Amino acid sequence: MKAIQMVKPGSEPELREVDKPSPGPGEVLLKVTAAGACHSDDFVLNLPPEGFPYPLPLTLGHEGVGVVAELGSGVTTLTEGTAVAVYGPWGCGVCHFCSRGLENYCSNAAELQIAPPGLGAPGAMAEFMIVDDPRHLVPIGDLDPVTTVPLTDAGLTPYHAIKPSLPKLVGGTTAVVIGTGGLGHVAIQLLRHLTPSRVIALDVTPEKLDFAKEVGAHETVLSDADAVANIRKITGKDGATAVFDFVGYQPTIDTAMGAVGTMGDVTIVGLGDGQAAAKVGIWAQPYEVSVRAPYWGSRSELIEVLDLARDGALDVAVQTFGLDDGVDAYRKLAANDLRGRAVVVP
Ligand SMILES: [Zn+2]
Ligand SMILES: [Zn+2]
């Protein structure tokens, strides 16, 4: 079968011919119907070769939707032909975090070498993929695979990031979204659907700001050196109640910390260069600001996000590519030349 694989750190992924996998005991084989490309793939592709964390070659794709093609022995909770979305942050299933559905924070995954598909285990950018356990699959019913697949990360991650701030996002408050790409443009829609807050979106080009308005932002501000002043012109002296940074480089984290108001939340979601950090101290920010850096989301939250999609609350912008031009999808992703999410349809 065909698969898009990372072969060498610092190089483009390649379309390669690999063996079709067959499911072992307890596993599920999916015929992939859609796979999403994510900025974190680009981050991984450009990691230095020294200490590279995953075995290579690695089939990419941590966002996957497919149809159950074959059940490994002992799997009784699914039937062949069911359309499912893959919950990506696989854990052990038995530790305290996993028991709460928070497999993204599994205590044992590192020790047991359990890795998400596309981020260690073979991913969804292929004709078929193995899912290690049926609990990592959520039936999608008649949802469209192409617009549903980004929800497994670009929907789940902002949902998990926003949820703890919901009690603070009451009428008259402001939520700021920095970065309007795959995750950010879904975050704007989630905030509009789940809160009465005014939503301000930040990005670096007027085109991206227009897009942010199209998906529901009330106001837009260019993400530049004047961003904090321009946000505060809108919020007044109270500042923002919650700022979600889907970029994560030092300038955007500084903008987030500068825009947040007393008792507000700053949530850093974007990977950036993996080095940037918020400075927190008694007078480094307004009083009682909370700073979080979450990762992905829980199993139950994926079910909630798919239910929101079923209610028509989310309209995910996608650009589709065949498996044969999936490498081009990664090129466009690296060049920041995408509107919404790149989805590969095998
Ligand atoms: Zn991702
Ligand atoms: Zn666990």
Automatic annotation (TrEMBL):
Q: What SMART domains does the entry give?
A: PKS_ER
Q: What keywords does the record list, in alphabetical order?
A: Metal-binding, Oxidoreductase, Zinc
Signal sequence region: none
Cofactor(s) this protein cannot do without: Zn(2+)
Does Zinc appear among the keywords? Answer: yes
Q: Residue ranges of region Disordered?
A: 1-23
- Reactions the enzyme catalyzes: a primary alcohol + NAD(+) = an aldehyde + NADH + H(+); a secondary alcohol + NAD(+) = a ketone + NADH + H(+)
What InterPro entries does the record tag this protein with?
ADH-like_C (IPR013149), ADH-like_N (IPR013154), ADH_Zn_CS (IPR002328), ER (IPR020843), GroES-like_sf (IPR011032), NAD(P)-bd_dom_sf (IPR036291)
Question: What EC number(s) is this enzyme filed under?
Answer: 1.1.1.1
Q: Name one Pfam family in it.
A: ADH_N
Q: Where is the Enoyl reductase (ER) domain?
A: 10-344
Which family is this sequence assigned to? Belongs to the zinc-containing alcohol dehydrogenase family.
PANTHER family on file: ALCOHOL DEHYDROGENASE 1-RELATED, VACUOLAR PROTEIN SORTING-ASSOCIATED PROTEIN 11
Q: What is this protein called?
A: alcohol dehydrogenase
Q: Which organism is it from?
A: Gordonia hankookensis
